[in-house]
Specification:
Helix content is about 80%, strand content about 0%. By secondary structure, the protein is an all-alpha fold. Helix 5 packs antiparallel against helix 10, helix 8 packs across helix 9 and helix 8 packs antiparallel against helix 10. It is globular and about 60 Å long.
Length: about 190
């Protein structure tokens, strides 16, 4: 899984080669294809692994009661997105490649994993607008993409971030500052 994740992150789906993945994993191509059949299935397994980790991460961080305000739940969701992005920066790199053009992989990924998270965010943002904590002229759908970008980019381009700022984006302090920046930009209060 590590070799496949590295290959898909570095080379994208089209550039990744099963033979290279097998070699990097220290196994034969025959053994790899016996277990995963083809590159498409291997890619799906990598994504399932990454996104299952997100669901476990969210389960661990869902501590607010369901009757909490939409604003409080959205704040928690944004913090979760940032913290998960810091823990799994490769996901954003792969998502950026896959989201650039329509493909069966994008459709599979969207329907199997990202749609529920997208819909949860948009619904919470709309509710937070009705509560008056987010400006009413911001489209919740656009806000979701802006938040994901702000939450993910410092970690997916960590070398550039550190080069220009002199700070490690993965440090606890930088992660918390990223959360605070996004919350400050999103919420009116």
């Amino acid at each position: 899984m590590e070799a496949a994740t590295a290959a898909f992150t570095r080379d994208g789906f089209k550039g990744a080669r099963m033979r290279s993945i097998a070699s990097d994993a220290g196994i034969t191509i025959q053994l790899l294809t016996y277990h995963v059949k083809n590159k498409e299935r291997l890619w799906e397994m990598v994504m399932e692994h990454m996104l299952a980790h997100y669901e476990l991460f969210r389960t661990d961080t869902k501590t607010l009661p369901q009757d909490a305000s939409a604003s409080a739940r959205l704040r928690r969701l944004i913090a979760d997105i940032v913290r998960y992005s810091a823990s799994e920066p490769k996901l954003h790199r792969i998502m950026t490649q896959e989201g650039a053009q329509p493909s069966p992989r994008l459709a599979w990924l969207s329907e199997k994993f990202t749609r529920p998270a997208y819909e949860e965010f948009v619904a919470l943002a709309a509710q937070a607008q009705r509560e008056g904590s987010i400006r009413s002229d911001i489209q919740p759908e656009r806000l979701r993409f802006a938040v994901v970008a702000m939450a993910s980019v410092p970690f997916s381009v960590s070398a550039e971030y550190e080069y220009f700022t002199g700070k490690d984006p993965f440090s606890r302090g930088e992660i918390e500052q990223t959360i605070n920046l996004i919350l400050h930009m999103v919420f009116e209060d």
